[in-house]
């Protein structure tokens, strides 16, 4: 079977790069009952780039994010993480592969402190005692303090429950958690939706910094301004298909909206 | 400022619940000490501790379950089944085998409950209500409704022994409480138990092995019940099919009174153990003071209702307290 001309709806913007992709989806499809939520999606993500993933509600953005973060598994196609083709990815494996997600709902445990949330699932271990692993609280505290300061959030108390913190602080915790092990891909699902002007600017700046460290960043957003401010490439999904995959410099606001809505022909690259 | 530093504001701090129960315990002992001075002696405390040790062990397992957002209502029936089985096996096999078999049996039952809760995705209250009835039925079937008597002396030695100057069940409870407090507060497993009680979706997203953890909690709970059931059968030298009736109510009362949130994610073993002690003192105190012992059921139920109301009110109060603090800070 000749994949090369069937795979890709249009020549991807990343074509001709010398770098190897950190993540590549090849003809990924996902069904929910009889509905095809993703329809042969092919996408490659390279080190250091910020890709905006946009689309109308129900276009398949969150399904794609869930597959990449291991919360759902794909039904058809191949998912490559570097040199490995993964048939079934769980959240644990995804994190081990260095794929992290900042979900829109942030996925914090409200009953735990900031430090416990940052280190959740990856607690530093002081020593093992049979099946029990004793948490190194001092290291956990220091590590999360470092991460949260790095993000530039103001948060003094890392131990009391996070339920009463502000939206910005909570997001900082979720991002700090993602940063601890994201060495391949970090996905932000609507990162600025709950933020004020000032925090939005800080978050976009952070996204640029993360990408500059050589990680691939994918930003799911409805906000065109954010996309043009931070992304290098934009991918438009519509009805589960990749409709457009183009450098942001070649895209216009109107063109993207048209591609999302399906009311205009696909933009040339 | 006066409202911020009211004499009861410490009740809103992290160890507030434990200190509140400690106060109640002290008050109950004070009343008993005044009206029944001979209540206050070591031997009597050991009798109370022995009575409460089985409930205490069950409360530890139940605390783990409730913190993780689960519950097992079948512990009473499980207790009866494994003590009856232990006694039956002890009549034909060495005590060690009887003890081991009963623990393994209860562990497996716990695991089955866990599997059902995991797979059927229904409230664990409903599912374990079912197994509670089934297990009680099984106990009545295999015993014909009669107690299992005439177990060999060698089987009784284990439960009747002393350990560190305490009866073995009391000693087991103390060790179990220390161990579980350590696991819950210091280890990754303990942290994850709190995490899944706090947010299931978040725990899944960060890669906590949810299934393994939930099954593990049910399994450990089963083993604890099995162990305490063996101790009971061994201590009393017999096992009755009516063992453990209402054990789940006692355990849940202690756990909630001890400051574990019924919605999961909050609590510690220290509070639960203090609550067990308080319930024991109240129960024995009623008898000691010559009050009609039928009152004890009413007091028990009343304590449970009091505890859950207190839980709700203290959460609301904490919220107000925080708000007040924030307003002062402005």
From the structure above, extract its key features:
heterodimer, A: 269 residues, alpha/beta, Rossmann fold, 2 domains, 6-stranded mixed sheet, 4-stranded antiparallel sheet, 9 helices, globular, disordered N terminus, B: 330 residues, mainly alpha, ABC transporter involved in vitamin B12 uptake, BtuC, two-stranded antiparallel sheet, 2 strands, 74% helix
Structure description:
Chain A is of the alpha/beta class. Chain A folds into 2 domains: 1-98 and 182-269, P-loop containing nucleotide triphosphate hydrolases (Rossmann fold, 3-Layer(aba) Sandwich); 108-181, no CATH class. Helices cover 31% and strands 27% of the residues of chain A. Chain A has helices at 4-7, 61-68, 91-96, 114-118, 137-151, 167-179, 197-212, 224-230, 253-261; strands at 23-32, 35-45, 50-55, 76-81, 84-86, 99-102, 125-129, 132-135, 185-189, 216-220, 233-238, 241-247. Chain A has a 6-stranded mixed beta sheet, sandwiched between helices. In chain A, β7 (125-129) and β8 (132-135) form a beta hairpin. In chain A, α5 crosses α6. The two termini of chain A are 27 Å apart. The relative contact order of chain A is 0.18. The model of chain A is unreliable at 1-15 (pLDDT under 50). Chain B is mostly helical. Chain B has a single domain (19-321), classed as ABC transporter involved in vitamin B12 uptake, BtuC, CATH 1.10.3470. Chain B contains 13 helices and 2 strands; from the N terminus they run ααααααββααααααα. Chain B has helices spanning 16-35, 42-67, 75-90, 95-120, 124-143, 153-160, 168-186, 188-198, 200-205, 210-236, 247-257, 269-288, 295-329, and strands spanning 162-163, 166-167. Chain B has a two-stranded antiparallel ribbon with strand order 1-2. Chain B is globular, with a radius of gyration of 21 Å. The model of chain B is unreliable at 1-7 (pLDDT under 50). Classes of the chains: A alpha/beta (269), B mainly alpha (330). Chain A binds chain B through residues 69-71, 90-95, 101, 103, 105, 107-112, 116, 120-123, 125, 129, 131-135, 164, 177, and chain B through 183, 186-189, 191-192, 194-195, 197-199, 201-209, 265-266, 322.
């Amino acid at each position: 079977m000749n994949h090369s001309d069937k795979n890709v709806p249009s020549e991807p913007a990343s074509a001709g790069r010398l770098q190897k992709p950190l993540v590549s989806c090849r003809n990924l499809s996902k069904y929910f009952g009889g509905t095809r939520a993703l329809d042969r999606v092919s996408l490659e993500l390279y080190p250091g780039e910020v890709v905006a993933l946009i689309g109308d509600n129900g276009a398949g953005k969150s399904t794609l994010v869930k597959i990449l973060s291991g919360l759902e598994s794909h039904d058809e196609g191949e998912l490559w993480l570097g040199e490995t083709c993964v048939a079934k990815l769980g959240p644990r494996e995804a994190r081990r592969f260095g794929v992290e997600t900042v979900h829109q709902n942030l996925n914090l445990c409200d009953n735990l402190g900031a430090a416990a949330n940052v280190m959740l699932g990856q607690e530093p271990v002081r020593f093992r005692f049979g099946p029990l692993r004793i948490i190194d609280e001092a290291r956990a505290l220091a590590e999360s303090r470092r991460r949260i300061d790095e993000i530039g959030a103001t948060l003094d108390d890392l131990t009391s429950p996070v339920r009463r913190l502000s939206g910005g602080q909570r997001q900082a915790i979720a991002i700090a958690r993602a940063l601890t092990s994201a060495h391949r891909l970090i996905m932000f699902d609507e990162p600025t939706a709950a933020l004020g002007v000032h925090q939005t600017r800080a978050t976009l700046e952070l996204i640029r910094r993360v990408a500059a460290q050589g990680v691939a960043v994918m930003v799911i957003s409805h906000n065109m301004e954010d996309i043009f401010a931070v992304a290098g490439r934009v991918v438009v999904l519509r009805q589960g298909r990749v409709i457009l995959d183009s450098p942001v410099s070649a895209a216009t606001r109107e063109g993207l909206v048209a591609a999302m809505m399906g009311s205009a022909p696909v933009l040339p690259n | 400022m006066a409202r911020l530093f009211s004499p009861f504001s410490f009740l809103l701090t992290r160890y507030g619940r434990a200190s509140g129960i400690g106060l109640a315990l002290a008050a109950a002992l004070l009343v008993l000490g005044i009206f029944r001075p001979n209540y206050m002696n070591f031997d009597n405390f050991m009798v109370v501790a022995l009575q409460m040790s089985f409930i205490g062990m069950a409360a530890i397992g139940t605390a783990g379950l409730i913190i993780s957002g689960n519950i097992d209502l079948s512990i009473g029936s499980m207790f009866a089944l494994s003590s009856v089985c232990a006694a039956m096996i002890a009549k034909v096999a060495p005590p060690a085998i009887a003890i081991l078999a009963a623990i393994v049996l209860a562990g497996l039952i716990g695991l089955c409950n866990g599997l059902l809760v995991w797979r059927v995705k229904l409230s664990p209250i409903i599912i374990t209500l079912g197994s509670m009835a089934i297990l009680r039925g099984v106990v009545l079937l295999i015993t014909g409704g009669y107690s299992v008597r005439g177990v060999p002396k060698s089987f009784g030695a284990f439960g009747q022994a002393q350990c560190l100057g305490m009866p073995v069940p009391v000693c087991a409870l103390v060790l179990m409480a220390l161990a579980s407090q350590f696991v819950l507060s210091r280890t990754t497993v303990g942290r994850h138990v709190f995490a899944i009680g706090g947010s299931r979706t978040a725990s899944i997203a960060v890669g906590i092995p949810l299934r393994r953890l939930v099954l593990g909690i049910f399994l450990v709970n089963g083993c604890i019940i099995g162990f305490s059931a063996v101790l009971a059968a061994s201590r009393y030298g017999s096992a009755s099919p009516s063992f453990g009736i209402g054990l789940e109510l006692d355990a849940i009362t202690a756990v909630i009174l001890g400051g574990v949130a019924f919605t999961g994610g909050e609590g510690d073993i220290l509070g639960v153990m203090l609550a067990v002690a308080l319930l024991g003192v109240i129960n024995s105190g009623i008898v000691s003071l010559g009050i009609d012992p039928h009152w004890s059921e009413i007091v028990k139920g009343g304590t449970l209702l009091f505890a859950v109301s207190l839980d709700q009110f203290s959460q609301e109060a904490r919220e107000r307290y925080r708000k007040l603090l924030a307003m002062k800070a402005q």
